[in-house]
Every structure is written in C-alpha cells, then in structure tokens.
Amino acid sequence: MKNNPKQASCCQNASPQKAHKALACPVNGKKGQTVSSKTLRHLIKKDRVHDVKDSGYYFCKTADCDTVYYHPESGQCFQKEDLKVRVGLKETEDPVWLCYCFEISKKMIETEVDKTGQSSFGIHLHSEVAIGNCDCETLSPSGRCCLGEVLSAEKEAQAKFAR
Question: Does any domain span residue 125?
Fold first, then answer.
C-alpha cells in the first residue's frame, strides 16, 4: 500500500456525494449510503466500467442483497458479479474481507484470537490509518474506512473464543 501524505486518514477522505438524497435500494427497499464514482471505477469489472456515471451512486450494505451499487435516478444497478473483488459484507464463506487495503479477513482475526486470546489487527490498522497508509475510497467496496468493521470483528471473535 502506498503512503499518501495528502491523505490524513481514510476515515476522513471518503467523500460521499452530497447532491443526492439517500434513497432506498431498488431491490430490497433499504436505505443505502452514498459512494463515490471513483470507488466504482476502481472496483467494477472492465466490461462494465464504461457504464459508470459521474455521480449519484449508493452502496447497498444489506448482507443478503446481491446489489452492491445503485443509481436511483437512472435505475442502474451493479451486482456482486460485476465487481473485481468479493464484498465481505455480502459474503458468508471465506474469505470474508473486512479490510481491503491490508487484506484482513474475518477468519484471520478469528484465528489469531483463538490462538492468542486477542487480535493485533485493529491496533496495526489504526496505526496505518493514522499515517495515511490506506486507500479505502478506491479499495473498499463501501468507499469508507474499515477500521470499525475490524474492531467489531475483534470483539465478536473475543466473545466467541472467550477462555
């Protein structure tokens, strides 16, 4: 991962589109979150990337919905199979990715907690984010920082493997 000195933190850098009201996913009717077209252009497969519009996309964060991105004004949707990466939030089988910048999966956290009683991934990730060594806007399907996802997975694993 390249160090980007201009980027203070991926948590601050993910810039949601403010021009559009948050509208529901056309497949499941649940509210999505805005996502940059930059994110889509990086993650959509080559044969569909030319379909990406300049703005107005939302990320469907519902786990059991195959829609990943949608454009409420045009009705356009991109499904899991349209992406170059697996969307951890929408997967149940390994690898369930939590952090795309540093390739951290749920299984990796669970394995470490099972062996040692704790996880070092959150601390490591926090340090990397603090010095700008992340690029969540282009690498993470949500376009947002994954630190919260990693910390939640650590808590879940600690509860699962409590000694």
Answer: yes
